[in-house]
Design a protein that fits this description.
The structure is a single chain. The protein has 200 residues and is mostly helical. It folds into two domains: 43 residues, no CATH class; 116 residues, Citrate Synthase, domain 1 (Orthogonal Bundle), CATH 1.10.580. 51% of the residues lie in helices and 5% in strands. The protein contains eight helices and four strands; from the N terminus they run E-E-E-E-H-H-H-H-H-H-H-H. Strands 1-2-3-4 form a four-stranded antiparallel sheet. A hairpin with a 3-residue loop joins strand 1 and strand 2. Helix 7 packs across helix 8. The chain is globular and about 50 Å long.
């Protein structure tokens, strides 16, 4: 780059971005929850290789691992799924706020707004205890799909949907709300894999 062209103007012939290699070989990130790039192109959640758990675990198992620190046994998974199912509902004030968001809004903006409103309606405790933080994470996981799809159906179709279903997983619940019918098992399994891959 010359002094005359300090990067503010495209070079003659058009702009051709260069591939940055500044971080080649540097792990993308390591936390207690996740390691990325430790041995190449790998991803681990609390020590578990994503290739081993993405298709073998339900999303609620991976969520429990990330939020609560361990994979649950069968009884623990059933209890966790029941807890999340009970947290899917939305306060009337939150639904009213979601109805004000225009149909052209980006889904991430809808969820951000929904989280802000929910946080105002159900403020966290002053002690900021880890247990309270885990409860907040569980509440958000359980209700984000409800927020998004309540807004979607209202903004695009003028319909106020019921956001609580009998589906036992977050993936099945999301698909049920999206399509209005209980989803096929293969769709739910695909949602589990997708949610597991994006979990951290």
């Amino acid at each position: 780059m010359s002094e005359a062209n300090n990067g503010t103007q495209p070079a003659s012939g058009g702009f051709k971005p260069k591939k940055s290699v500044a971080l080649s070989g540097v792990p993308a990130g390591n936390t207690a929850l996740c390691t990325v790039g430790r041995t190449g192109n790998d991803l681990h959640y609390r020590g578990y290789d994503i290739l081993e758990i993405a298709g073998a675990c339900e999303f609620e198992e991976v969520a429990h691992l990330l939020v609560h620190g361990k994979l649950p046994n069968a009884a623990g998974l059933a209890a966790y799924k029941a807890k999340l199912k009970a947290l899917r509902g939305l306060p009337a004030s939150l639904k009213a706020a979601l109805e004000w968001i225009p149909a052209a809004a980006h889904p991430m903006d809808v969820m951000r707004t929904g989280v802000s409103v929910l946080g105002s309606l159900l403020p966290e405790k002053d002690d900021h205890a880890p247990t309270g933080a885990r409860d907040i994470a569980d509440r958000l996981m359980a209700s984000l799909g409800s927020m998004l799809l309540y807004w979607y159906h209202y903004a695009h179709n003028g319909r106020r949907i019921e956001v609580e279903t009998d589906d036992d997983s977050i993936g099945a619940h999301f698909l049920h709300l999206l399509h209005g019918v209980q989803p096929p098992k293969s769709w739910v399994e695909a949602m589990h894999v997708s949610l597991n891959l994006y979990a951290e």
